[in-house]
Protein backbone atom coordinates (compact mmCIF):
# COMPACT_ATOMS: atom_id res chain seq x y z
CA UNK A 1 0.00 0.00 0.00
CA UNK A 2 1.51 3.28 -1.07
CA UNK A 3 0.27 5.34 1.85
CA UNK A 4 0.83 2.72 4.54
CA UNK A 5 3.27 5.04 6.30
CA UNK A 6 0.35 7.33 7.07
CA UNK A 7 -2.01 4.66 8.34
CA UNK A 8 -2.54 6.47 11.63
CA UNK A 9 -3.08 9.91 10.09
CA UNK A 10 -6.74 10.89 9.95
CA UNK A 11 -7.84 11.29 6.36
CA UNK A 12 -9.94 14.28 5.36
CA UNK A 13 -12.93 11.97 5.20
CA UNK A 14 -12.44 10.68 8.75
CA UNK A 15 -12.28 14.10 10.40
CA UNK A 16 -15.50 14.80 12.23
CA UNK A 17 -15.50 18.54 12.99
CA UNK A 18 -18.74 18.20 14.97
CA UNK A 19 -17.27 15.78 17.55
CA UNK A 20 -15.43 17.57 20.37
CA UNK A 21 -13.54 14.52 21.63
CA UNK A 22 -11.86 14.09 18.23
CA UNK A 23 -10.98 17.64 17.25
CA UNK A 24 -8.25 20.00 18.40
CA UNK A 25 -8.02 23.56 19.69
CA UNK A 26 -6.93 24.72 16.23
CA UNK A 27 -10.19 23.45 14.75
CA UNK A 28 -12.25 24.89 17.61
CA UNK A 29 -10.71 28.35 17.01
CA UNK A 30 -11.75 28.19 13.34
CA UNK A 31 -15.32 26.85 13.62
CA UNK A 32 -18.17 29.13 14.73
CA UNK A 33 -20.20 26.59 16.72
CA UNK A 34 -23.78 27.56 17.55
CA UNK A 35 -25.34 24.51 19.24
CA UNK A 36 -23.85 22.07 21.76
CA UNK A 37 -25.38 18.61 22.18
CA UNK A 38 -24.82 16.87 25.52
CA UNK A 39 -25.95 13.21 25.54
CA UNK A 40 -26.88 11.74 28.92
CA UNK A 41 -26.68 8.01 29.52
CA UNK A 42 -26.65 5.55 32.39
CA UNK A 43 -24.80 2.46 33.57
CA UNK A 44 -27.31 -0.16 34.65
CA UNK A 45 -28.47 -3.75 34.03
CA UNK A 46 -30.74 -4.41 31.03
CA UNK A 47 -32.31 -7.87 31.49
CA UNK A 48 -29.82 -10.74 31.07
CA UNK A 49 -28.81 -10.13 27.45
CA UNK A 50 -27.91 -6.45 26.96
CA UNK A 51 -24.78 -4.63 28.18
CA UNK A 52 -24.72 -2.23 31.13
CA UNK A 53 -23.63 0.54 28.76
CA UNK A 54 -26.83 0.51 26.66
CA UNK A 55 -27.89 4.08 27.47
CA UNK A 56 -24.32 5.33 27.11
CA UNK A 57 -23.98 3.62 23.69
CA UNK A 58 -27.37 4.99 22.63
CA UNK A 59 -26.17 8.49 23.50
CA UNK A 60 -22.94 7.95 21.55
CA UNK A 61 -24.44 6.41 18.41
CA UNK A 62 -27.56 8.56 18.19
CA UNK A 63 -25.58 11.69 19.07
CA UNK A 64 -23.08 10.95 16.30
CA UNK A 65 -25.65 10.12 13.63
CA UNK A 66 -27.80 13.11 14.54
CA UNK A 67 -24.91 15.59 14.63
CA UNK A 68 -23.32 14.24 11.44
CA UNK A 69 -26.61 14.59 9.55
CA UNK A 70 -27.27 18.05 10.96
CA UNK A 71 -23.71 19.20 10.17
CA UNK A 72 -24.06 18.04 6.56
CA UNK A 73 -27.21 20.17 6.35
CA UNK A 74 -25.34 23.23 7.56
CA UNK A 75 -25.90 23.14 11.32
CA UNK A 76 -22.95 24.39 13.39
CA UNK A 77 -23.25 21.68 16.03
CA UNK A 78 -20.74 20.26 18.47
CA UNK A 79 -21.29 16.88 20.12
CA UNK A 80 -19.93 16.59 23.67
CA UNK A 81 -18.88 13.27 25.23
CA UNK A 82 -21.83 11.37 26.74
CA UNK A 83 -22.29 11.52 30.52
CA UNK A 84 -22.00 7.78 31.30
CA UNK A 85 -23.88 7.77 34.65
CA UNK A 86 -27.48 8.57 35.49
CA UNK A 87 -30.00 8.33 38.31
CA UNK A 88 -30.48 4.75 39.56
CA UNK A 89 -31.84 5.14 43.08
CA UNK A 90 -34.66 2.70 42.30
CA UNK A 91 -32.35 0.14 40.63
CA UNK A 92 -29.75 -0.01 43.37
CA UNK A 93 -30.67 -3.50 44.54
CA UNK A 94 -29.03 -4.67 41.30
CA UNK A 95 -25.21 -4.83 41.26
CA UNK A 96 -23.32 -2.05 39.47
CA UNK A 97 -26.33 0.17 38.94
CA UNK A 98 -24.13 3.27 39.11
CA UNK A 99 -26.14 6.07 40.65
CA UNK A 100 -25.92 9.84 40.49
CA UNK A 101 -28.66 11.35 42.65
CA UNK A 102 -30.93 13.78 40.77
CA UNK A 103 -29.34 16.74 42.60
CA UNK A 104 -25.82 15.50 41.72
CA UNK A 105 -26.71 15.03 38.08
CA UNK A 106 -28.27 18.50 38.10
CA UNK A 107 -24.99 19.91 39.48
CA UNK A 108 -22.97 18.13 36.80
CA UNK A 109 -25.18 19.55 34.06
CA UNK A 110 -25.10 23.03 35.62
CA UNK A 111 -21.29 23.01 35.68
CA UNK A 112 -21.12 21.82 32.05
CA UNK A 113 -23.62 24.49 30.99
CA UNK A 114 -21.41 27.13 32.65
CA UNK A 115 -18.39 25.80 30.71
CA UNK A 116 -20.32 26.10 27.46
CA UNK A 117 -21.49 29.61 28.31
CA UNK A 118 -17.88 30.68 28.95
CA UNK A 119 -17.10 29.27 25.49
CA UNK A 120 -19.79 31.49 23.98
CA UNK A 121 -22.41 28.79 23.32
CA UNK A 122 -26.00 29.98 23.88
CA UNK A 123 -27.97 26.96 22.57
CA UNK A 124 -27.59 23.68 24.47
CA UNK A 125 -29.47 20.45 23.76
CA UNK A 126 -29.66 17.71 26.39
CA UNK A 127 -30.10 14.42 24.51
CA UNK A 128 -31.27 11.99 27.17
CA UNK A 129 -31.30 8.19 26.83
CA UNK A 130 -32.32 7.22 30.36
CA UNK A 131 -35.83 7.33 31.83
CA UNK A 132 -34.42 7.72 35.36
CA UNK A 133 -32.83 11.06 34.40
CA UNK A 134 -35.52 13.58 35.28
CA UNK A 135 -34.06 16.69 33.71
CA UNK A 136 -36.88 19.19 33.40
CA UNK A 137 -36.20 20.53 36.93
CA UNK A 138 -32.67 21.41 35.75
CA UNK A 139 -34.13 23.54 32.94
CA UNK A 140 -36.52 25.19 35.39
CA UNK A 141 -33.77 25.92 37.91
CA UNK A 142 -31.36 27.36 35.33
CA UNK A 143 -34.00 29.45 33.58
CA UNK A 144 -33.16 33.13 34.02
CA UNK A 145 -29.86 32.26 35.75
CA UNK A 146 -27.87 31.46 32.59
CA UNK A 147 -27.66 33.29 29.27
CA UNK A 148 -27.83 29.88 27.54
CA UNK A 149 -31.08 28.43 26.24
CA UNK A 150 -31.56 24.80 27.25
CA UNK A 151 -33.52 22.24 25.23
CA UNK A 152 -34.37 18.76 26.48
CA UNK A 153 -34.96 15.80 24.18
CA UNK A 154 -35.85 12.47 25.79
CA UNK A 155 -35.47 10.69 22.43
CA UNK A 156 -37.38 7.57 23.59
CA UNK A 157 -40.56 9.67 23.85
CA UNK A 158 -40.61 11.21 20.36
CA UNK A 159 -41.72 8.38 18.07
CA UNK A 160 -45.06 7.35 19.59
CA UNK A 161 -46.79 8.00 16.24
CA UNK A 162 -44.70 5.33 14.45
CA UNK A 163 -44.02 3.02 17.41
CA UNK A 164 -46.58 0.40 16.40
CA UNK A 165 -45.48 0.50 12.75
CA UNK A 166 -41.96 -0.53 13.75
CA UNK A 167 -42.44 -2.70 16.85
CA UNK A 168 -44.86 -5.44 17.94
CA UNK A 169 -45.07 -4.39 21.60
CA UNK A 170 -44.51 -1.22 23.56
CA UNK A 171 -41.97 -1.53 26.32
CA UNK A 172 -40.13 0.30 28.96
CA UNK A 173 -36.55 -0.89 29.35
CA UNK A 174 -34.43 -3.59 27.69
CA UNK A 175 -37.36 -4.78 25.58
CA UNK A 176 -37.95 -5.01 21.83
CA UNK A 177 -37.01 -1.38 21.14
CA UNK A 178 -33.67 -1.23 22.96
CA UNK A 179 -32.71 -4.75 21.89
CA UNK A 180 -33.37 -3.77 18.27
CA UNK A 181 -31.03 -0.77 18.64
CA UNK A 182 -28.38 -3.06 20.11
CA UNK A 183 -28.77 -5.57 17.27
CA UNK A 184 -28.44 -2.75 14.74
CA UNK A 185 -25.39 -1.01 16.19
CA UNK A 186 -23.52 -3.25 18.72
CA UNK A 187 -24.76 -6.81 17.98
CA UNK A 188 -21.56 -8.37 19.35
CA UNK A 189 -22.66 -7.29 22.85
CA UNK A 190 -26.09 -9.00 22.72
CA UNK A 191 -25.90 -12.34 24.56
CA UNK A 192 -27.46 -15.42 22.96
CA UNK A 193 -28.05 -19.05 23.92
CA UNK A 194 -26.48 -21.83 21.82
CA UNK A 195 -29.78 -22.12 19.87
CA UNK A 196 -29.55 -18.43 18.87
CA UNK A 197 -32.30 -17.15 21.18
CA UNK A 198 -31.59 -14.19 23.47
CA UNK A 199 -30.42 -15.07 27.01
CA UNK A 200 -33.19 -12.74 28.27
CA UNK A 201 -36.30 -13.53 30.28
CA UNK A 202 -39.67 -12.28 28.96
CA UNK A 203 -39.30 -8.88 30.64
CA UNK A 204 -42.53 -9.18 32.61
CA UNK A 205 -43.54 -6.37 34.95
CA UNK A 206 -45.27 -7.07 38.27
CA UNK A 207 -48.36 -5.00 39.18
CA UNK A 208 -48.47 -3.25 42.55
CA UNK A 209 -51.24 -4.03 45.09
CA UNK A 210 -52.73 -0.53 44.59
CA UNK A 211 -55.06 0.03 41.64
CA UNK A 212 -54.45 3.76 41.39
CA UNK A 213 -50.76 3.10 40.74
CA UNK A 214 -51.49 0.35 38.19
CA UNK A 215 -53.91 2.74 36.39
CA UNK A 216 -51.34 5.53 36.31
CA UNK A 217 -53.38 7.92 38.48
CA UNK A 218 -50.69 7.90 41.15
CA UNK A 219 -47.02 7.43 40.46
CA UNK A 220 -44.13 6.11 42.50
CA UNK A 221 -40.47 5.65 41.77
CA UNK A 222 -40.63 1.98 40.93
CA UNK A 223 -38.26 -0.37 42.80
CA UNK A 224 -36.90 -2.42 39.92
CA UNK A 225 -36.07 -5.49 42.01
CA UNK A 226 -39.84 -5.75 42.75
CA UNK A 227 -41.08 -4.55 39.35
CA UNK A 228 -38.96 -6.94 37.23
CA UNK A 229 -37.24 -10.32 37.47
CA UNK A 230 -33.87 -9.42 35.93
CA UNK A 231 -34.08 -5.66 35.31
CA UNK A 232 -35.94 -6.11 32.03
CA UNK A 233 -39.31 -4.35 31.57
CA UNK A 234 -40.61 -5.37 28.15
CA UNK A 235 -40.34 -8.46 26.00
CA UNK A 236 -37.19 -8.32 23.86
CA UNK A 237 -37.65 -11.52 21.82
CA UNK A 238 -39.18 -9.95 18.69
CA UNK A 239 -36.26 -7.52 18.29
CA UNK A 240 -34.38 -7.29 14.97
CA UNK A 241 -31.53 -5.18 13.64
CA UNK A 242 -33.82 -3.90 10.87
CA UNK A 243 -36.26 -2.48 13.45
CA UNK A 244 -33.33 -0.78 15.18
CA UNK A 245 -32.21 0.81 11.92
CA UNK A 246 -35.74 2.03 11.12
CA UNK A 247 -36.09 3.63 14.54
CA UNK A 248 -32.68 5.27 14.17
CA UNK A 249 -33.72 6.78 10.83
CA UNK A 250 -36.82 8.33 12.40
CA UNK A 251 -34.85 9.73 15.35
CA UNK A 252 -32.07 11.12 13.18
CA UNK A 253 -34.47 12.78 10.77
CA UNK A 254 -36.49 14.40 13.56
CA UNK A 255 -33.69 15.55 15.85
CA UNK A 256 -31.21 16.53 13.12
CA UNK A 257 -33.95 18.64 11.54
CA UNK A 258 -34.45 20.40 14.87
CA UNK A 259 -30.70 21.06 15.21
CA UNK A 260 -30.56 22.61 11.74
CA UNK A 261 -33.39 25.00 12.59
CA UNK A 262 -31.96 25.75 16.01
CA UNK A 263 -28.53 26.48 14.60
CA UNK A 264 -29.97 28.99 12.13
CA UNK A 265 -32.28 30.67 14.62
CA UNK A 266 -31.32 34.12 15.83
CA UNK A 267 -31.31 34.57 19.61
CA UNK A 268 -33.19 37.76 20.47
CA UNK A 269 -35.34 38.74 23.48
CA UNK A 270 -38.31 36.76 22.20
CA UNK A 271 -36.34 33.62 21.30
CA UNK A 272 -37.56 30.91 20.75
CA UNK A 273 -40.92 32.58 20.08
ZN1 LIG B 1 -31.67 1.60 28.59
In short, what is this structure?
35% of the residues lie in helices and 8% in strands. The protein is built from 9 helices and 4 strands. Helix 2 packs across helix 9 and helix 6 packs across helix 9.
Can you offer a commentary on this structure?
The chain is built from 9 helices and 4 strands; from the N terminus they run αβαβαβαβααααα. It is 35% helix and 8% strand. Strands 2-1-3-4 form a 4-stranded parallel beta sheet, sandwiched between helices. The chain has helices at 25-30, 54-72, 102-119, 136-142, 163-166, 176-185, 211-214, 224-227, 241-264, and strands at residues 35-40, 77-79, 123-128, 149-154. By secondary structure, it is α/β, with parallel strands linked by helices. α2 (54-72) packs across α9. The longest helix has 24 residues, at 241-264. It is globular. The model is unreliable at 1-7 (pLDDT under 50). Zinc ion (ZN) is lined by residues 46, 54-55, 173, 178.
